[in-house]
Design a protein that fits this description.
By secondary structure, the chain is α/β, with parallel strands linked by helices. Helices cover 27% and strands 26% of the residues. It has helices at 41-48, 96-99, 155-160, 164-176, 191-203, 218-224, 235-243, 258-267, 290-296, 310-322, 341-349, and strands at 3-6, 14-17, 20-22, 29-39, 58-59, 64-71, 83-86, 119-121, 124-128, 138-142, 146-149, 183-187, 207-211, 228-230, 248-253, 268-276, 299-302, 332-336, 355-359. Strands 4, 6, 7, 10, 11, 18 and 19 form a 7-stranded mixed β-sheet that branches. Strands 2-1-5-9-8-3 form a 6-stranded mixed β-sheet, with no helix packed on it. Strands 14-13-12-15-16-17 form a 6-stranded parallel β-sheet, with helices on both faces. α4 packs across α5. The radius of gyration is 20 Å and the shape is globular.
Length: 361
């Protein structure tokens, strides 16, 4: 089958191969035929080495949707023919985090991320990104990672429900707890940031300032709910104008850089929330003194996966999309073929697109 292979994190080389095999599912596993998969900045970070990837060959991709084609003999939650979204942080249901309803923190499956391979390349074991590997025509995951959806919902939009949409919307509604009347800023207008803009609109924020140096993204942000679109250089003046210099109630950082987290900090009011959504590098520390942390009295909140529980949240997100309150279609800059995946990566690296979706034939 076809799959995109990264031989070594940090080398920046993707091999588009047709000799990869997805192994048979175990008793509690599911094999999925991927029908659509997104090209996400986290994929780029793994390719560049900014995110650690472990050793050995890896099938890239973590944001996808498809059709179940085989299940293990102990699986009852899904069956062949079901349409599913891939959940890259599946909840084991047994750990303390799951019992505390913080399933986005579950490490039940992530702990053996590189101890069990689910692919082979010419007989050589290969692993999947984040335990998945959606840049492949087929993949095997624990049944908890296959979230059943209505088969009428299109695969290309469903793919974005595997990462960027629940991450961005969830950061606002779950982590940030934005309330009607709040003033919000979002830094970074990729798929996650634009989903956060929509989350702020859904939450009833009165001011939604979208910040990005790429002006070609501003019109889309305005269409999705931003009340003002600006570049980073305009942010301080905008803060002063809209808040009297006090700062925004919530600032969402969707870039993954210490510099932009620091910028978010400076734009936030005392007592407000800096919500960090972007996945940054391990060697990019944030410099805030303990003095400033105490007396500025702002909250820094990480938001892993938007604190989403996909089994709980996917039906709501799909209903919002169907009713016209959540626009997933506009997040898709282009639909591309597998053969054009390297070009899609280049376009995202250059900031030319928001989200591209690879559609498998």
């Amino acid at each position: 089958m076809r799959a995109a292979v990264l031989r070594e994190s940090g080398r920046g080389e993707i091999e588009l191969r047709d000799d990869v095999t997805a192994l048979d599912p175990g008793p509690e596993e599911v094999k999925i035929r991927i029908r659509a998969t997104g090209v996400c900045h986290s994929d780029l970070s793994l390719i560049s080495g900014e995110l650690p990837g472990g050793g050995g060959a890896m099938i890239l991709g973590h944001e996808g949707a498809g059709e179940v084609i085989e299940v293990g003999n102990q699986v009852t939650a899904v069956a062949p023919g079901d349409h599913v979204v891939v959940n890259w942080i599946p909840a084991c249901g047994q750990c303390e985090d799951c019992r505390n309803r913080q399933v986005h923190l579950c490490m039940g499956f992530m702990e053996n991320l590189f101890s069990k391979h689910r692919f082979e390349i010419g007989g050589t074991p290969a692993f999947g990104m984040a335990g998945t590997g959606t840049w492949a025509e087929e993949m095997v995951v624990p049944w908890q990672a296959a979230i059943k959806i209505d088969p009428a919902f299109p695969f290309d939009q469903a793919a974005l429900l595997g990462c960027c949409v629940p991450t961005g919307v969830g950061a606002v509604l779950n982590t940030g707890s934005v309330r009607p009347g709040d003033r919000v800023a979002v830094i970074g207008l990729g798929g996650v940031g634009l989903s956060a803009v929509q989350g702020a609109r859904l939450a009833g924020a009165t001011s939604i300032v979208a910040v990005d140096p790429a002006r070609h993204k501003h019109a889309l942000a305005a269409r999705l709910g931003a009340t003002q679109t600006i570049t980073p250089e305009e942010a301080e003046d905008t803060k002063n104008l809209l808040t009297g210099g006090r700062g925004f109630d919530h600032v969402f950082e969707a870039v993954g850089r210490s510099a932009t987290v620091r910028h978010a900090w400076q734009l936030t009011r005392r007592g407000g929330d800096v919500v960090v959504i972007g996945a940054g590098a391990p060697d990019d520390p944030l410099d805030i003194s303990t003095y400033e942390l105490l007396f500025a009295s702002r909250n820094i909140k990480p938001s892993v996966y938007g604190e989403s529980d996909l089994r709980r949240d996917l039906p709501k997100l799909i209903e919002l999309a169907r009713s016209g309150h959540l626009d997933i279609e506009s997040l898709i800059s282009a639909r591309v073929r597998f053969e054009d995946l390297n070009d899609a990566v280049t376009a995202l690296t250059k900031g030319e697109v928001v989200r591209q979706v690879v559609v498998f034939d």
